[in-house]
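(Deposited chain)
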Amino acid sequence: MKKIFFVLAAVTISSQLHAQQDSATSKPLDEIIITANKFPQKQSFTGKVMTVINQQQLQNSLGKSVGEILNEQVGITVNGANNTLGANQVLYMRGAAFANTLILIDGVPLNDASAINSEFDLNTFPVYQVERIEILKGAQSTLYGSDAVAGVINIISKKAGKKSFNTDVNLSAGSFGTYRANLALSGNTNKTAYHVSYSHISSKGISSAYDSSGTKGFDDDGYMQNVLQGNFTGRLSEKFTLRLLGKLSRHKADIDAGAFTDDKDYSYNILNALTGIKGTYEYKKGALNLLVNYNYIERKFTDDSGHTGGFSKYQQGNYKGKTLFAEIYNNYSFTEHAEILTGIDLRRNATNQDYLSISSFGPFKSLPLSSDTAHTSQFSAYASFLLKKISGFYAELGGRWNNHSLYGNNFTSSFNPSYLVNEKVKLFANIASAYRVPSLYQLYSEYGNRELKPERSVNYEAGLQFTGKDFHARATAFKRNIRDVFIFYTDFSTFQSIYKNEDRQEDKGLELEAGIKLFSKLNLSANYTYVDGKIFTSTPAGKDTSFFNLYRRPKHTFNVNAAYQVIPQLLISAHLRNVSKFYEPRFAAAPLEMKGYYTIDLYSSYRFSKALSVFAELRNITDQQYFDIRGFNTKPLNFNTGINCSF
């Protein structure tokens, strides 16, 4: 009866009216994008593979996290997205490791200088505060530097609308004692604009670890997040615009000791402060941009785990990371057919870290890291030349020179040709190299190696894109080769461990996506992803051996969405996600095969007026028990309902 009640609630209560329609019938070739070349242009002007999650799609996803939204996109898998709130989010784009996808906020690279691989935590982005998300696939180091190996994800924050004053309120509640609230104030005049918002999320959650026996009484792992974000834009003259950005977030969560292992006293607390300034000077044939951004992260893990019976009775880890990013870039149009982008950037990273563990053998304290010694800097110069609208032919040719304070120089390049057969059909092929620099932990920790070189990669992709009045589709094939892969090596004769450059990685795959509008009210969209890969290692005899290593990444993933406009005010939709079997790594044993799974979600929205709407959603309506990480729970049948007001 509970399931029937929730289904009825989902189709009778509802948020934004046209989001699913836009998702299925938008015209990608006409869409204005920023991330592909760092300045606004139509998607038809580039051969790069772009996916845009627009504001109306995000409005239909207010009960989800950014990780859950990305998990539904072609070419992306996010382990932990469907676990309890606050769980570790591990993103794989086209099968690549998380550290090979660069996260941006408003075009500025983000990383956590205190993390092992420098990955930035996706939990810090409330959906309420996001205007749109642009996903750019393939090697993008020419424009964005380190980590842009598989692609970049640009999370663009909300800005002021057209009104002189506006207030937005979003409230929702759902399963597991989960509550979300957001208050945003914004205004716009001829010369100034501002947007300030506060977002709160709290949840009692579910147990992070899976109780395989069902009798151990694992406790629920709660979560709380508070985020204050704001931006101010001032037009100081007819040609010069200045924008200020600030974001302060704190989130804390209860976590467990590991797979199948509960822990009632283990938690983390993370503070992130981000501030930046951007100045833009526009002139007749282009624009000059200056960006300065500072990112501070403080992570604290505390585990008073005496009750678990484990080796350690108490643990505490403190990790602080500081990143300074500064960039100047200029785009200049020689003619309507030729344009050049040039730029330089500077990046400085530093970290402070200490770890304490107490066991029956006494205390252990790791060698602390200090920002006085654990720091690096990079200086880069890049250029990209664009040809466009020459008998339907478009091309981009670019390169980047990078100088790292420890290992020295490296260079990357890219070539992105495309051809518009007509207004509906585009052919494209991309060849680009990329790189990833070692993290501070890999360089300076007790396992660090200051002789590490950057990982180097080459990406190939080709495809076809079609856009019609009521139908669009795209097919993309890709291949990626990475050399000097970072590995964690242990010498079993001495039991000493160190990070090394050694292996090479080869990945390949296929992405298919399409959307169609039927009978004016029904919209269908679907995507399919295939990924495969293997790593090559050298044996003591000097021969190469290879094996599949894309663990926790299914070879086949399929998403389909159907949306039906019942009446102008009422929208209902359904989403199916199907994942093939995958493999879980195990220490000193063969990988374990994990079963594939599927989930079905329902959503409905009802708009009373332009200022007021309500929504409800049901997720995993068949109550599937499945795992994307062995030994950790995913959410069973759950619901969320809420209200959106604007005045």
In short: The helical segments are 2-12, 19-25, 55-59, 66-70, 141-144, 440-444. The longest helix spans residues 2-12. The mean pLDDT is 90.
